[in-house]
């Protein structure tokens, strides 16, 4: 469990101070895969770094497993850091060491024997799926393979917490998915808590259970990922996830839209309900389907459908009332001519 209690971090600047993190409080439960989203400069990295004390706090405290870690020093600090692995956007591997050596040095530095180190390194190379790369230098690896090495290095000391700072931001979409899958598997297998910070919401959607959103150093929203993506409360969150009207509509559709444009958002099991054909049969209203997509967040479906109802004004009104009332989880947003 990681708990931020009124964390503020100020940086002195030429003119005054910059509140990089301002009075942030929330909790991350043990075993969670927790996301922190926000634009560049929101304060995500600064907040994350207070967990392993790469960054000191101006005020507030960070509790890890109930213990205030903000002031630990010396031996206690080294023990605390051993409990926390961290990975970065640019992998931070030592170019002059092989994959094996990059990982092994963590254990050698901790005083493990050569044999114990060897067993552990082989085991972790296997866990991250790069056993055959043991004797290769980082320059010969793909980005995804480098991040696998970094993950093995971060966890081999027995870390119970993995901090990921934009860990997939330098990777292509396919590799991102494979790394996220690996993190998810390791989290389960090794029982570790994962904190992922990213400016890419697809990452959060793909792997996190809960998520916090930061803007200008402040926590603006926190909640379950499915709720956050389907019912964002905060205006910045809405903007961040492109919840505004027509964001997911191709411009040519918007340009050519005539009459009424209706956005239907289907959540959970209702994503598969035949409400449109029901409404057509009941009210004699035709629906031109402009754009439709369905995606899965936390394995629950979210469907978005833009339709243009065509029919007698009164029939259209009744059809829309039907859509709003009969199927409670369908959200109908009406817009006049655009
Ligand atoms: N060590 C530092 N010294 C001075 N300013 C910093 C330092 N680290 C971060 N900042 C500033 O604090 C703000 C938040 O930065 P950061 O936490 O890196 O944001 P994010 O990770 O969300 O992009 C930014 O304006 C950044 O320029
Ligand atoms: Mg950052």
Q: How do the helices and strands line up, and which of them pair or pack?
A:
Elements: E1 2-12, E2 17-28, E3 33-37, H1 44-49, E4 59-64, E5 67-68, H2 74-82, E6 84-88, H3 99-109, H4 114-127, H5 143-155, E7 161-165, H6 173-190, E8 193-198, H7 201-207, E9 210-215, E10 218-224, H8 225-230, H9 235-240, H10 251-256, E11 261-267, H11 275-283, E12 286-297, E13 300-310, H12 313-326, E14 331-335
Parallel strand pairs: 3-8, 3-9, 6-7, 7-8
Antiparallel strand pairs: 1-2, 1-4, 4-5, 9-10, 11-13, 11-14, 12-13
Helix pairs in contact: 3-4, 3-5, 4-5, 5-6, 11-12
The protein binds adenosine-5'-diphosphate (ADP) and magnesium ion (MG).
What is the string of helix and strand elements?
A: EEEHEEHEHHHEHEHEEHHHEHEEHE
Fraction of helical residues: 25-40%
Strand content: 25-35%
CATH architecture label of the largest domain: 3-Layer(aba) Sandwich
CATH homologous superfamily placement of the largest domain: P-loop containing nucleotide triphosphate hydrolases
- Give the N-terminus to C-terminus distance in angstroms: 49 Å
CATH C-level class of the largest domain is Alpha Beta
User: Helical segment tally?
Assistant: 12
Structural class: alpha/beta
Task: Work out the count of structural domains.
Answer: 2
The CATH topology of the largest domain comes to Rossmann fold
- Widest sheet, order of strands: 6-7-8-3-9-10
Name the poorly predicted regions.
none
Distinct ligand kinds: adenosine-5'-diphosphate, magnesium ion
**Strand tally:** 14
**CA gyration radius, whole angstroms:** 24 Å
């Amino acid at each position: 469990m990681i708990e931020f209690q009124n964390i503020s971090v100020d940086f002195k600047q030429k003119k005054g101070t910059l509140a990089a993190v301002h009075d942030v409080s929330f909790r991350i439960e043990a075993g969670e895969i927790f996301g922190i989203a926000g634009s560049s400069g929101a304060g995500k990295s600064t907040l994350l770094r207070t967990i392993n004390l790469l960054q000191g706090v101006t005020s507030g405290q960070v509790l890890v497993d109930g213990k205030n870690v903000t002031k630990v020093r010396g031996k206690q600090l080294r023990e605390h850091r051993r409990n926390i692995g961290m990975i970065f956007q640019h992998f931070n591997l030592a170019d002059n060491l092989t994959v094996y050596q990059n990982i092994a040095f963590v254990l050698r530095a901790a005083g493990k024997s050569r044999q114990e180190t060897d067993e552990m390194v082989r085991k972790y190379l296997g866990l991250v799926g790069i056993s055959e790369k043991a004797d290769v230098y980082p320059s010969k690896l793909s980005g995804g393979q480098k991040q696998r090495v970094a993950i093995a290095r971060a966890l081999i000391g027995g870390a119970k917490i993995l901090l990921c700072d934009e860990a997939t931001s330098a990777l292509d979409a396919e590799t991102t998915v494979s790394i996220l899958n690996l993190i998810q598997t390791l989290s389960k297998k090794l029982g570790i808590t994962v904190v992922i910070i990213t400016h890419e919401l697809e990452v959060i959607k793909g792997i996190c259970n809960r998520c916090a959103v930061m803007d200008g150093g402040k926590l603006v929203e926190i909640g379950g990922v499915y709720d956050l993506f389907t019912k964002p409360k905060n205006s910045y969150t809405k903007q961040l996830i492109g919840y505004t009207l027509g964001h997911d509509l191709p411009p040519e559709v918007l340009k050519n839209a005539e009459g009424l444009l209706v956005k239907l958002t289907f959540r959970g099991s209702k994503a598969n309900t035949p409400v449109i054909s029901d409404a057509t049969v009941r009210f004699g209203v035709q629906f031109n389907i402009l754009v439709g997509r369905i995606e899965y967040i936390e394995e629950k479906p979210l469907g978005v459908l833009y339709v243009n109802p065509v029919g007698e004004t009164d029939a259209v009104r009744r059809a829309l009332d039907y859509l709003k009332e009969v199927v409670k989880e369908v959200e109908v947003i009406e817009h006049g001519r655009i």
